[in-house]
């Protein structure tokens, strides 16, 4: 082995190389030498050399993932393929799904139809009343597009969480039609004898909504459930393995939440898999922070969006262009080169 190559290899496998940020990683020898293939985690398919390609959220700096692809490209099918494997590993799972796809129900134990069935969100382990009020009001202001409402909502919700009742909100709701709108939506989700987060986190849940639920109500319900779940998992302590995976369909509706969540480096065993057909709606930083991103096929405008988020080479571009179903690119955090893969979906979920 030549002297230069020897130094090159040493550098590639030295510890310092691991400390580099994603942006700099592209200049390390890792971009020349293929990293060893993952041998644990969810099997996605095979690469161009016929090797099995897996993704292991527990090993990645960030446990969260994103599936992007145009409508019909196979996003939900891939999500079900991953869920089926997670089940076999004993991982609990939720799907939050505004389309109420029957194909999810067939692999989950329990269907929870929100607004028909209710939740009790006054019990919120892992959050103080003020903290939860502050977080939730931040997202409600964005979901309803009522600029300037965050502070009033925070004050009202903090009282609700302290008193464990929606009554403080009910008292003020008629002072303002926008407040009334939010109150009415919360009322549709809430009941004193509704499900508590501790109960929900123990189940494999397909969370759905009746067809006439508004976009805002769906986003609010998803947001409340995710905040409660996040607090609950945090209250159980830090750990590196995935205990619960949440597939979130139409994830662009909660794009502000993802940016915050994906920045969180500590691990509480919660892995979110955001599914969307609108990659452009997400802040580009979400794709940089995600532990893994799977890009499925789509038309040229969609591929152009993907190419602007990740610098794609010609071969990568072509691999997911022309709507070839089953073709995908896998981007793993810390691995600067995307993998071109052909998915091998469990026939049970097709
Ligand atoms: N890898 C695949 N191989 C063969 N058929 C697939 C594959 N992925 C999805 N399909 C089929 O394509 C259709 C659309 O898939 P779906 O997952 O619902 O797409 P999306 O969620 O992106 O809209 C379904 O009928 C599904 O069975
Ligand atoms: Mg789908």
Give a quick rundown of the structure.
One of its GO terms (molecular function) is 3'-5' DNA helicase activity. With 350 residues, this protein is α/β, with parallel strands linked by helices.
What descriptors fit this protein?
binds magnesium ion, eleven-stranded mixed sheet, 350 residues, 14 helices, alpha/beta, 3 domains, binds adenosine-5'-diphosphate, single chain, globular, Rossmann fold
Strand order of the largest sheet: 2-1-11-10-9-3-8-7-4-6-5
Q: How many domain units?
A: 3
| Structural class determined from secondary elements | alpha/beta
Strand content: 15-25%
Name of the CATH first level of the largest domain? Alpha Beta
User: How many beta-strand segments?
Assistant: 11
- Write out the CATH superfamily name of the largest domain: P-loop containing nucleotide triphosphate hydrolases
User: Can you name the CATH architecture of the largest domain?
Assistant: 3-Layer(aba) Sandwich
Report on the biggest sheet. Answer: 11 strands, mixed
Gross morphology is: globular
What is the CA-atom radius of gyration, in angstroms? 22 Å
The CATH topology of the largest domain is what? Rossmann fold
**Into which percent range does the helicity of residues fall?**
25-40%
Bound molecules: adenosine-5'-diphosphate, magnesium ion
Q: Residue-averaged pLDDT, rounded?
A: 90
N- to C-terminal distance: 49 Å
The tally of helices reads 14
- Write the element-wise H/E pattern from the N-terminal end onward: HHEEEHEHEHHHHHEHEHEHEHHEE
